[in-house]
Design brief:
Elements (H helix, E strand, L loop, with lengths): L2 H11 L7 H20 L4 H14 L7 E2 L6 E2 L1 H13 L19 H11 L3 H22 L2 H4 L4 H18 L3 H14 L11 H21 L15 H4 L20 H5 L12 H14 L6 E9 L20 H4 L3 H11 L9 H4 L2 H7 L2 E6 L12 E7 L4 E6 L12 H12 L5 H12 L7 H7 L3
Parallel strand pairs: 3-4
Antiparallel strand pairs: 1-2, 3-5, 5-6
Helix pairs in contact: 1-9, 2-4, 2-6, 2-18, 3-4, 4-5, 4-10, 5-6, 5-8, 5-10, 6-8, 8-9, 8-10, 9-10, 13-15, 15-17, 18-19, 19-20
């Protein structure tokens, strides 16, 4: 069987009972967190602009089949997925995973939530579709090779379009032939560039991936065709999106062995900024509290990583803004995140407002933060995978903390209590307290929810 056939067979024929309880629990945690950060993003300018566009294009007469979370707006299925996907990524507070090199949940949740509401699907069906999409996009991501992300593609958007299509195909009950066509259609709707990181277009790309899955499956269900073997061959998705020809179709397979949501697992963010900076944030916050550090004591802060991760311009992977001037740029600046962690002793929504980044004292301090490529393993590191923060004081003292993984990663996950606290903080930006309580109750027992409409009622105003 070709790679496309393997993916299609997994999407259509995998019994819900084949998903183990621990995978469903991990998927529920991811879905819970994603809905929370979507509510938090409702008031962001990028989310507001997308909703304004929807009203202009579709009207606001309340006739649409799906709702936009945290609002009273109804929209088309694709429109709701687009709006919710953009809001959910607006704060860069959503989860990440290794094999996708991106954010796995945000292309999926808005798409399946819109379809589940329109169809009156159960919570169990919603969660199963979400997990199927998660598994498909990550297994395909495993096959793409390093050159996909390194060349500048935004994997959340490219792979997310296929994951969204997979999840929607499962929820709609498409046939194998229809599902193959849906993947073909979605592959031509996939796109997104890392050059847009630090702008409103980054969350737009996530919203577009969610919309792509809804559009692709809606068309396939109506007889629209796409390439039937879209993942395979010289002009297939894997080869085309692997610029260095390092894609490996043999990596597609082994579905559920293990489930991606369990291994390598999901990293849930503690801070509303790029995940690459979270180890540095954890280390800086710990050292600042432990030694009661102040800006005026600091000569420089070095952020050490294994060789090759720091660019000549001072960027670290997607953290491309060495000298950020806006809140969005600050989310993708290792220099700013470390400086803000030391100066403010916390990283919150307010940290990444334009006026926070523009503070003269922060602009001065971030210029003393230096990402460093290590030529050999840092002496404080316990493994090859590490980030080490060295805070050098003017009196000659040096304080160091090295981490392999930040809090919230697969080996040190947030507790349900911590996840719930995060959900409450996020949801409070859009919903009254009584609805937040109701939403938490329904989400925590999602497999028992008979009709997803009941959940959406709690998530809208």
């Amino acid at each position: 069987m070709g790679a496309t056939d393997l993916v299609v067979e997994f999407i259509v024929d995998t019994p819900s009972e084949a998903i183990p309880d621990d995978a469903r629990e991990a998927g529920l945690r991811a879905l819970f967190d994603t809905i929370g950060v979507t509510l938090a993003g409702v008031t962001e300018p990028s989310a507001e602009a997308v909703r304004d566009l929807l009203v202009a294009d579709e009207g606001a007469n309340g006739a649409g089949p799906a709702r936009v979370l945290g609002t009273s707006l109804r929209a088309s299925l694709a429109g709701a997925a687009f709006a919710n996907g953009t809001a959910g990524h607006a704060l860069d507070f959503d989860d990440v995973t290794q094999h996708m090199s991106g954010h796995p949940s945000i292309p999926l949740a808005p798409a399946v939530l819109a379809l589940a509401e329109e169809r009156g699907a159960s919570g169990a069906e919603l969660l199963t579709a979400f997990l199927v999409g998660f598994e498909a996009e990550c297994k395909i991501g495993r096959a793409l090779g390093r050159s996909h992300y390194a060349r500048g593609f935004h994997a959340t958007s490219t792979l997310g379009a296929l994951g969204s299509a997979a999840a929607c195909a499962r929820l709609l009950g498409l046939t194998q032939e229809e599902t193959a066509h849906a993947l073909g259609i979605a592959s031509s709707l996939a796109g997104g560039l890392r050059a847009n990181f630090g702008s409103m277009t980054k969350p737009l790309q996530a919203g577009n991936a969610a919309r792509a899955g809804v559009v692709a499956t809606g068309l396939a269900k109506r007889g629209f065709t796409g390439g039937a073997d879209i993942l395979d061959g010289g002009f297939g998705f894997v080869r085309v999106f692997s610029p260095a020809d390092d894609g490996d179709l043999e990596q597609i397979g082994g579905f559920g062995e293990p489930w991606e949501v369990l291994d390598p697992g999901v990293s849930v963010k503690k801070y509303p900024c790029c995940f690459v900076s979270h180890r540095a944030a954890d280390a800086t916050l710990a050292l600042t509290e432990e030694h009661d550090l102040r800006d005026e004591q600091v000569e420089r802060i070095e952020v050490h990583l294994p060789g090759g991760q720091v660019s000549s311009a001072g960027g670290v992977g997607p953290m491309i803004h060495a000298r950020p001037l806006t809140g969005l740029e600050g989310k993708f600046s290792m220099q700013y995140v470390v400086a803000a962690a030391l100066h403010d002793r916390r990283l919150t929504f307010d940290t990444f407002e334009d006026e926070s980044v523009a503070r003269p004292e922060l602009q001065a301090l971030l210029r003393r933060v230096e990402p460093v490529n290590d030529t050999r393993r840092h002496p404080a590191a316990a493994s090859e995978n590490y980030l080490a923060v060295e805070i050098h004081l003017r009196d000659g003292s040096v304080f160091t903390r090295a981490l392999a993984e930040p809090r919230g990663g697969p080996s040190d996950p947030l507790s349900w209590e911590e996840l719930t606290d995060k959900f409450r903080d996020c949801a409070a930006r859009a919903l009254p307290e009584a609805q937040i309580d109701r939403a938490i109750t329904l989400l925590r027992d999602l497999d028992s929810v008979a009709d997803t409409t009941e959940l959406v009622d709690a998530l809208t105003v």
